Amino acid sequence: MFDDVHLRAFGDLNGKRACVFASGDNRAVFALTGLGATVTSVDISENQLEVARQRASELDLDVLFIRSDVTHIPELESNQFDLVFMGGVAIFWFSNLEAVCREAARILLPGGRAAWLSGIIIPSPLYGRRTSRDLKSSILISTVAQGFSSTDSAQNTTCTIGQSAINSRP
């Protein structure tokens, strides 16, 4: 599920708390649990969550599953996660990425990390053609061409989406 680039970006997750936004098939949830994190899975689809609950039960994993839109997750308190992760193509389904970013900043601990990963090819007249390898190498970034940053000053956390991140390399 994760390669060396991801693992370096995540850091040691043993004993840390992670939240997976738009968890879908929950592969990332189970992988992060295997890396030692206590994981919360958030998805809008009750069907996806029910399948994941059954699988977690079979594997005897302690995962919290929440059905919610990730732009506003009232079930989660502020300032509690070391990592917020979103993978696959989930980022392309949101009409308000700033709200997603704001919610990630709200629930992250100071110094926590938001990792948006998309492993698809995105042709863009602004940035040229990016390959799956390029995007996977750009962990902790968004693949969206618009730029903005959301900061929760009460918690000193920032989630950034934009061009500077697109061009970053580990």
Biggest β-sheet, characterized? 5 strands, parallel
Task: Give the overall silhouette.
Answer: globular
CATH class (first level) name: Alpha Beta
Order of helices and strands: HEHEHEEHEEEHEEH
Helix fraction by DSSP (H/I, runs of at least 4): 25-40%
Predict the CATH topology: Rossmann fold
| N-to-C span | 18 Å
Total helix count?
Answer: 6
**What's the name of the CATH homologous superfamily?**
Vaccinia Virus protein VP39
* Percentage of β-strand residues: 25-35%
Largest sheet, spatial ordering of strands: 3-2-1-4-5
What is the second-level CATH architecture?
Answer: 3-Layer(aba) Sandwich
Provide the domain count. Answer: 1
Can you characterise this structure?
With 170 residues, the protein is an alpha/beta fold. The protein has one domain (14-166): Vaccinia Virus protein VP39 (Rossmann fold). The protein is 28% helix and 27% strand. The protein is built from 6 helices and 9 strands, in the order H-E-H-E-H-E-E-H-E-E-E-H-E-E-H. The chain has helices spanning 4-10, 27-34, 46-58, 97-107, 132-136, 163-166; strands at residues 17-21, 38-43, 64-67, 81-86, 108-116, 122-124, 128-130, 148-152, 157-161. It has a 5-stranded parallel β-sheet. A hairpin with a 3-residue loop joins strand 6 (122-124) and strand 7. The longest helix is centred in the N-terminal third of the chain and has 13 residues, at 46-58. The chain is globular and about 35 Å long.
